[in-house]
Amino acid sequence: MNNRPSDEILMAFAAGTLPQGPALVVSAHLALCPESRARVRRFEVIGGMMLDDVPAVDMSADALEKVLGRLDAPSSKPAVEKGTWLAEMPDGMILPEPLEYYDIGKWKFLAPGVHWSSIGKGGPARTRPMLLRSKPGMVLPEHTHAGTEYTLVLKGSLHDELGDYKVGDLIIADASLEHEPRAGPDEECICLAVVDGRLRMKSLIGRIVQPILGF
Amino acid sequence: MNDVSPLSFIDRYSPQRILFRCEFYRGEPKADAGRYVRRMKKIDENSDRIVRIAQHADKKAFAALFGFYGPRIKGFFMRGGMAAGQAEELAQETMLTVWRKAQLFDPDKASASTWIFTIARNLRIDLIRRERYPAQHLLEEPDPEQEPSPSDGLLKAESEERIRIAIKALSPEQVRVIHLHYFDDIAHSEIAKTLNLPLGTVKSRLRLAVQRLRNLMGED
Description:
The structure holds two protein chains of two kinds. Chain A is an alpha+beta fold. Chain A has helices at 7-15, 20-32, 34-53, 63-70, 204-213, and strands spanning 108-111, 114-118, 130-134, 143-145, 148-155, 158-160, 163-165, 170-173, 182-183, 189-196, 199-201. Helices cover 28% and strands 22% of the residues of chain A. Residues 1-29 and 142-154 of chain B have low confidence and may be disordered.
């Protein structure tokens, strides 16, 4: 796999400073990429080191007693529930494990040959992750970025001026990059995408769908 | 082979492993090797405690683990800007989670500190964002398709030690940039403000620090 997130992004993920939407996309990428996973582990080790070396602050006198008193009580935290998926997936398509815990909406029309579906409920709509489903050879709506856009290929392939992207590849496009990704000619393409920041669509179709998507 | 002696009593390590480790300590004073051995023992002690909790619901082991990590977790949260009361509460919650999840701890995969760091990190984000951080299961699930890599032959504690030594070789500014990244839930632009540097400088410093770290760990 050629298209992996930079170490800075994997470090931010491990440190817990990556925003929620990008963290979900990176997490889904990790489910598909052992190499990135090994790197995140490494940055988690650095987190562990910092825990060892951070100036300790005394706990309150009764802290241990309080926690010991709670050890045998059942957890009051509700178990994490699996999400409801309304968007139909093509046969044999398995979404990466981290998505299991998110609600996925129905497919909606975005542009000719392209549908989208929103993921989860939290946060403002413009930074909410989404699935994009494109027929073979179709161009995803052209846009310029005012933030960083994360696109993970889950099925089929994507192609732009800079390269070809296969399942598991994560494309991270910052504001300076204007690209026009197109689905591969032989197979439909499904991607997980999120925008970290504001996205302005450039084309007419973009200007039409932008208000609908709430970007 | 003089510098082998402080380590050689740890019989569970093979000679190759000891030699491997001595690569790092060649030429360093023995005191460093002594400190290293003490730290390794501490790391193993804490791992054993979590295993004892998992296997025997050992409250004594928990109390000892609490004594070591409780104040560090609280300090970690406060370093990240959390008020003392909330940091105290969340540190207690973290230790409670350690107790409940102890069965999921795999001492071959991570040290106690690394594992507990991920729990503390997740709880902190859950609290701040009121949403579950999607990194929850990383250290807790087997990696069926993980291909063996050169580092798999090493004990996890040794590869962790490699990272520790690499970090020690970074310049203080580089460590500072990396630390800020972990301790404070703030964006790069705010890091720039804290360090009174242009944003571009912070970004390139972080990039350099990460690059150097990679070189120190023997990667391209």
